[in-house]
Amino acid sequence: MKKKGHDNEGFQHSVPLEIPPLQTSKVNLVYPAPEDDLYDPFSQRPQTLQYSDFGAWAHMVKGGMGTGIMAMPMAFKYGGFVLGLVGTPVVGIVAVHCVCLLVATAQHLYVRARMPAMTMPEVAYYAFKCGPSYLRRQAVYARFFVQAVLFLTYFFTIISYSIFIGAAIQQLVELWVGEAVLDSRVYIAILALPLVPLGQVRQMRQLVPCSVMANICIVVGFGITLYYLLDEAPTLDRVSMGPTAIGIPIFFSTAIYSMEGIGTVMPVENTMRNPGRLGGWNGIATRAMAFVVAIFTAIGVLGYLKFGDLVKGSIVLNLDDAIPAQVVKALLAVAITLTHPLQFYVVCELVGPVVENRVSTPNLRNWAQIGMRITLVTLSLLVAILVPNLELVIALMGAVLFSSLGLLIPAGVHLVSELAQWEDEKLKRPGASMPARVLLTVLKDAVLLTLSLLTTCAGVYSALVDNDSKSDPAQS
């Protein structure tokens, strides 16, 4: 179904729009719309297949929790105990603030562009298209940049999921059998059995059970891991209180990569029953991130206190071979398997329209969707099979792309939207100086953009350092 507003290519943000009749404004926008603007984007959305606030919360929690949760003790090792304890909540606050920026900008653009919903690339496109006059020609490039970043990030994410699940299954099988049975590539290939059917799910609402079950598996695995971490009194004897100069960027890079899940925000906002409750300081996104930060901080603190500088890349690798430890590995494998379709949904949202636009009839479009989803799952598994050691590639891509998704894009579209509103204001009040609120907002967004670039450099550096240390025979 074609969305309203896509053909409004010539829209100029300073020109009043025709107001649709018989519509009232029910949207609590962060940015105020013009006084006579009564367009209500939420009332234009389909009222079926929408899910509850709890479903939105579950999706947001699952989007922020992945394999990185068990890497937080390693982040604490690089950052030191004090920086880890303080820095993890700070990263969470910055991440949820950027989510709120993205949601607020999108809901503002719904009214300006007369569209009931937008994807993340569309938010970037219309932010520039409705933006300052000197930036409107860059709208197409902004959309392409976001599409490319989203696709590469989440496609490589599902590849890393496949490698992780295959490795976990291989460890469990070899532990039970007592010897190596199959090559790791075979276990990755077997994953096609659950992942291909899960990849056919097309509605976010239908993925709520997967998110809930994945969250349950992670919470149970988290509880068992706590049992190991608390089997003796925590002590500060094994830990370093402060970081090294090299450790600080590695800590922040690891924490941002572990907790970032902003790519699922717009699909959640577009299909939830009460999208106005997603953003804000007490919104669903904030409550979800508070839960995520609490778990990440607890794992980081307790894991570092337990194993100190001997902690490995995943805390699971420090556990013994007892039954509870095996249960943790199994639960984590199940959780990541159930998380796969949520990340895969973002990939399909990007590729799906391109495929459907080349097919004429609804029946053929359905078959094209099926074929596209099977092809993408198969391709991700083939890459994982052909290159099973993707640690360096995934680390580099994740550091560059997740920092762009989590910081650069939300701050960028928010900055452009603010500048557009200021340009509107200057038309009404020629010669007016920029208000302090707008100036502070511009400076804050500029700081976030700078932080994104620093995070990218730090992430690339940490990945290269980690790869060098692993390849050095003296450290093997």
Structural description of this entry:
It is a single chain. This protein is an all-alpha fold and 476 residues long. The chain contains 14 helices and no strands. Helix 1 (53-64) packs across helix 7, helix 1 (53-64) runs parallel beside helix 10 and helix 2 runs antiparallel to helix 10. The radius of gyration is 23 Å and the shape is globular. Residues 1-33 have low confidence and may be disordered.
Quickly describe the structure.
It is globular and about 75 Å long.
pLDDT under 50 segments (min length 5)? Answer: 1-33
Distance between the termini: 56 Å
> What is the chain-wise order of helices and strands?
HHHHHHHHHHHHHH
Strand content: under 5%
Note the overall shape.
Answer: globular
Classify the helix fraction into a percent range.
55-70%
Keywords: Membrane, Transmembrane, Transmembrane helix
Membrane topology: Multi-pass membrane protein
InterPro entries: AA_transpt_TM
Transmembrane segments: 54-76, 82-105, 144-169, 175-195, 207-230, 250-268, 288-307, 367-387, 393-417, 438-464
Question: Which helices and strands, and how do they pair?
Answer:
Layout: H1 53-64, H2 72-113, H3 120-129, H4 139-177, H5 184-190, H6 192-198, H7 208-229, H8 247-259, H9 265-271, H10 284-307, H11 323-356, H12 362-386, H13 391-428, H14 436-471
